[in-house]
Amino acid sequence: MKHRTWFCKRNSRKSGIWGQVMRILVVEDNVNLNRQLKEALTEGGYAVDVAFDGEEAYFLGDTEPYDAIVLDIGLPQMDGLSVLEAWRRTGKTTPVLLLTARDRWSDKVQGIDTGADDYVAKPFHMEEVLARIRALVRRAAGLASNEIVAGAVRLDARSGKVTVEGQSVKLTSHELRLLTYLMHHKGRVISRTELTEHLYDQDFDRDSNTIEVFVGRLRKKLPEDCIQTVRGLGYQIAEG
Predict the structure, then answer these.
(1) At what angle do helices 210-221 and 173-184 cross, to 10 degrees?
(2) Quick one: pLDDT band at residue 9, thresholds 50, 70, 90?
């Protein structure tokens, strides 16, 4: 495995930023940078899987339902642009943020033309990566801002603040992840399987009843009928 010397610039303060999306794949062959990205994104409220080469990245991106992917261009086994091109050729539409150590504008243009949604040049500030990921998923969900409203419930996906009729509601990290995903998909019925796949990384026990437990806890903190059960199908937050 090759090791490059690019590292991210990171603010010493905890960002306190909660992600708009739930599950992210980080693809970076530099072990230290991969670890830094995973730690920062996990701290930001995301469930994070990692890959260190292009072949592993392609397999995970092709088989797992990620909400966004952070993809380095210079990877062993299979370079990042080839991985991205293969995903797009098979119809994968997951938002992809490219990491590039290349300064030439032609490389950046090639990345966008291949199907990338955005890029960040190394070295970078971690806060910039988080902000760009939020923007990518916000656009994918058709949202114009970080604030999502469903009746009396307001969620600021950037800060993780939830209010009901203007009053702050305290949620655990798992409750916030669940609510954020449902709020981003207002009006659509979300199955327990989909929630589990998007809220937790590969090590999570997907046969557990954790989703039901968190839904029950959320319902006690939110207005009645905010989270609706569609029998045999899943859960839904109604439009409005």
Answers:
(1) 80
(2) low
Structure tokens at 165: 């009729």
Q: Does a cis peptide bond (omega within 30 degrees of 0) precede residue 123? A: yes
pTM here is: 0.69
Rounded-to-integer distance, Cα 98 and Cα 130, Å: 13
Length of the chain: 240
Give the angle subtended at the CA of 91 by the CAs of 29 and 202, to the nearest 5°: 45
Round to whole Å and give the CA distance between 189 and 167.
27
Q: Which residues share a beta bridge with 131? A: none
Structure tokens at 212: 């039901």
Tokens of 92: 């994968």
Which residues fall within 8 angstroms of residue 114, CB to CB, at 6 or more apart? 81, 84, 85, 88
Count of beta carbons in the 10 Å neighbourhood of residue 235: 23
Q: Look at residues 184, 82, 72, 194 and name the one whose alpha carbon lies nearest to residue 134.
A: 184
Residue 133: helix, strand or coil by DSSP? helix
Ramachandran sector of residue 87 (left: φ over 0; alpha: ψ -120 to 50; beta: rest)? alpha
For the stretch 154-211, pLDDT in tens is: 998 778 899 999 999 999 888 888 998 899 888 899 998 888 888 877 666 655 578 8
Sign of the dihedral defined by the CA atoms of residues 152, 218, 179, 65, in that order: negative
User: Do residues 70 and 51 lie in contact, with contact meaning Cβ atoms separated by under 8 Å?
Assistant: no
* 63 CA to centre of own chain: 16
Backbone angles phi, psi at 27, to 5 degrees: -120, 110
